[in-house]
Amino acid sequence: MAPRASTQNLPEGDPATAAAPPPPVHVAIIMDGNGRWATARGLPRVAGHRAGVEAVRRAVRTAAELGVQWLTLYAFSSENWRRPLSEIIDLTGLLRHFLRMEIADLHSKGVRLHFIGDRTKFDPGIQSDIAEAVRKTADNQGLNLVIALSYGGRAEIVEAARQVAADVAAGRFNPVDLTEDLFAARLSTASIPDPDLVIRTSGEKRLSNFLLWQSAYAELIFVDALWPDFGPANFAEALAEFARRDRRFGARPA
Ligand code: FPP
Predict the structure, then answer these.
(1) Bridge partners of 146?
(2) Cα 78 from chain centroid?
(3) How many domains does the chain have?
(4) Atom number, ligand 1, closest to the C-alpha of residue 98
């Protein structure tokens, strides 16, 4: 299996010939601040989530324009089920609307949809909309859009460990043969490159159980803008900051 971390931005041998670094292959975003955006305007939280969907549309468009190949959006964490029922209904309603109304447009733009997380927690209608979105866009060659739904990094790692343990118990696998690549192949992101860059909006500085394994060597950028205000200029600035970072993946400087 190919190395999981992309090797772009590794120091070049001859700095004089080094071109501008390419954009990150995979950008993952923790979309935070919808509620504060709404509260600051005296609006109900759902208004912030609606504005958040607008920001999703902009981010998808901008990612493709900036040459990003993979964009993962943390739309609903496994912990978000602890929110009040009314907010869960609002969020799942927006998700249903997004899946029904946006897919045709995304498909026409060549976007390929992927989903990670425990989709069985959603009602059967949403589950079949997810399956249809994946099926319909499966052959598209443009931006790969990964939507994390009812996703939790720890649960994902535990599930992979459970699969390994079951294989060992059944005599199908010898523990000494386990490698990082073989373990990663059992995660929900098995066919997805690791994120090069994780962006979190709203000024909070934590990962909140997002892509814990996959972000081992990701650059982290924390942006003050609330998610509904996150626009193309914020995205471009994050990529410019990424380009200034010196990624060594644990190696010594040359
Ligand atoms: C965090 O803001 C945001 C969420 C929990 C949900 C993100 C969802 C969307 C942007 C809309 C749905 C997405 C898709 C792809 C259809 P918060 O509510 O925690 O904000 P706060 O920290 O200011 O309260």
Answers:
(1) 72, 114
(2) 14
(3) 1
(4) 16
Say whether 70 sits in a helix, a strand or coil. strand
126-181 pLDDT, tens per residue? 999 999 999 999 999 999 999 999 999 999 999 999 999 999 999 999 999 999 99
The reply to whether 67 falls in a domain is yes
DSSP string of 162-209? HHHHHHHHTTS--GGG--HHHHHTTSTTTTSPPPSEEEE-TT----TT
- State whether the beta carbon of 208 lies less than 6 angstroms from ligand 1: no
Is the Cβ–Cβ distance between 25 and 193 less than 8 Å? yes
Let me know: does 190 contact 213? Beta carbons within 8 Å: no
- Ligand 1 touching residue 53 (CB < 6 A): yes
pTM, full prediction:
0.91
Print the domain residue range for 101: 21-243
The answer to the question of residue 141 being in a domain is yes
Q: What ligand 1 atom has the least distance to the C-alpha of 147?
A: 15
What is the rounded CA–CA span in Å between residue 172 and residue 95? 40
Choose the catalytic residue: 9, 14, 34, 80.
Answer: 80
* Token pair listed for 2: 């190919």
- pLDDT of 107-134, one tens digit each? 999 999 999 999 999 999 999 999 999 9
230: CB partners within 8 A, 6+ apart: 31, 55, 58, 59, 201, 223
59 is a domain residue: yes
Which is catalytic among the residues 9, 32, 90, 129?
32
Helices (H), the chain: 34-40, 45-65, 85-101, 103-108, 124-137, 153-169, 180-184, 232-244
Catalytic residue list contains 32: yes
- Provide the CATH number for the domain around residue 168: 3.40.1180.10
- Report if residue 254 sits inside a domain: no
